[in-house]
Design brief:
- This protein is mostly helical.
- The chain has two domains: 2-174 and 224-276 and 283-393, Na+/H+ antiporter like fold; 405-438.
- It is built from 17 helices and two strands.
- Strands 1-2 form a two-stranded antiparallel sheet.
- Helix 13 runs parallel beside helix 16 (355-395) and helix 14 (327-336) runs antiparallel to helix 16.
- The chain is globular and about 100 Å long.
- The mean pLDDT is 83.
């Protein structure tokens, strides 16, 4: 139906996806702080086949199940960047990759220092390391309409690399007990998935059941189930062959993205962002070392890490900043990367077991992300104003020659034309001044 196509196309845009995610987060906060008991009841309601080890709560289905769709799309984006995007060229990829790594290491250092000095728990060191692709790109799409396209490419590459390493962190540091039988079964399923892709087997009725089996085995193995989504996304072919308008990866991502942006991620936000924001809880964010470490890591650590890493890479390696970008642009993007909503909330749930601590960590993620969004919004708005001024100067044609003045400044006749224009304007101003003076001296003047 045309309405369905219109809705799907809207959900593929970064702005709409970011707005829906924001609405879901706000709805979760309102629900949890007005009807908290019903929010808890729904979040903890269990359903699913217990015999398969999948009798999970609603919150777990959202975090482990639906979020796998989001990570599947992230895996396809990463594959596309590796084979056809910024990450294909090592020289072009070096700068955002170094920026992403430094943007993860420095927030972790900030968190660790704050918690060690404050005698807190270092378990949440990975919480402030992640960047939320959906929110960050949505803010850039809304505010940065006049910014260079290279800025979006830099942010997208940085966020994709950031997500890749966040996934590795989840797999390595937040996996306690491994069921090797289930893990081997998951790898066998992935091998079958890869083989079917290479044999050009088509049909959702083949891949969807197989993907569900792989996801269930990965969940039961003890490794976070979202890893299965990333692995399947990376296996898709993202290069076009003769006669193809779009590669399989592009086609499947095009189909799945509305489901991810309009259903999976908002539902995860709805059942993860519902934290109690009483006055004491908000004040506690700045008094507990764990929560303070998360806020400082997101707001300060991300900015320092990404900007500093980019500067060091250009200073001591052959990597070069894109000619379209200024260092002020990099600083604005670095502050924008402090929005760590989706993956930071997920890591916060994995890092702590105490319910009160998880609630406070979530509150600190929300507050840190909000501060980063406001700060980056102001910085991006200043850059937009700067680029608009440059555009207006480039398009100015004061002598009405049909050629912008900036391209004529080396022409001797241009200066003669401009002098004549200024003299004409000055004469017009003198004549208007004389008329105004004469009118004011007449006692019966209508003026």
């Amino acid at each position: 139906l045309p309405e369905r196509n219109y809705l799907a196309d809207a959900l593929r845009t970064e702005t709409v996806g970011g707005v829906i995610l924001l609405v879901a987060a706000v709805a979760a906060l309102i629900w949890a702080n007005t009807f908290g008991s019903s929010y808890t009841t729904v979040s903890h309601f269990h359903f699913g086949p217990g015999a398969l080890g999948l009798h999970l709560s609603v919150a777990h289905w959202a975090a482990d199940g639906l979020l796998a769709i989001f990570f599947f799309v992230a895996g396809v984006e990463l594959k596309r960047e590796l084979v056809a995007g910024e990450l294909r060229d090592p020289k072009a990829a070096a700068l955002p990759v170094v920026a992403a790594l430094c943007g993860m290491a420095v927030p972790a250092i900030f968190y660790t220092l704050v918690t060690v000095l404050g005698s807190g728990s270092t378990s949440g060191w990975a919480v402030p390391t992640a960047t939320d692709i959906a929110f960050a790109l949505a803010v850039l799409a809304v505010i940065g309409t006049s910014l260079p396209s290279a800025l979006r490419a830099f942010l997208l590459t940085l966020a994709v690399v950031d997500d890749l390493f966040a996934i590795l962190i989840i797999a390595v540091f937040f996996t306690e007990n491994i069921n090797f039988v289930a893990l081997i079964g998951a790898f066998a399923g992935l091998a079958v998935f890869y083989l079917l892709l290479r044999l050009n087997v088509r049909g959702w009725y083949v891949y969807v059941p197989l993907a569900l089996v792989i996801w269930g085995l990965m969940y039961n193995s003890g490794i976070h189930a979202t890893i299965a989504g990333v692995a399947m996304g990376l296996m898709l072919r993202c290069t076009r062959r003769d006669g193809e308008e779009r590669s399989p990866g592009e086609r499947i991502e095009h189909l799945i993205r509305p489901l991810s942006a309009g259903f999976a991620v908002p539902l995860f936000a709805l059942f993860s962002a519902g934290v109690s924001l009483s006055g004491g809880a908000v004040a506690g964010v700045f008094t507990r070392p764990e929560t303070l470490g998360v806020v400082l890591g997101l707001v300060v650590g991300k900015t320092v890490g990404i900007y500093g890493g980019t500067w060091l890479a250009t200073r001591f390696t052959r990597a070069e900043l894109n000619k379209e970008l200024a260092w002020a642009d990099v600083f604005a993007v670095a502050s924008l990367a402090g929005i760590g909503f989706t993956v930071s909330l997920l890591i916060g749930e994995l890092a702590f077991t105490d319910a009160d601590m998880v609630n406070e960590i979530k509150a600190s993620v929300l507050l840190g992300s909000l501060i980063a969004a406001v700060l980056s919004g102001v910085l991006l708005k200043l850059r937009v104003r700067r680029y608009r001024a440059l555009t207006d100067a480039e398009e100015l044609d004061e002598d009405e020659s049909g050629v912008p003045d900036v391209y004529e400044q080396g022409d001797p006749e241009y200066h003669l034309r401009m002098a004549a224009i200024h003299e004409k304007k000055a004469a017009e101003h003198r004549r208007l001044a004389q008329l105004a003076g004469a009118a004011s001296n007449k006692p019966d003047s209508p003026a």
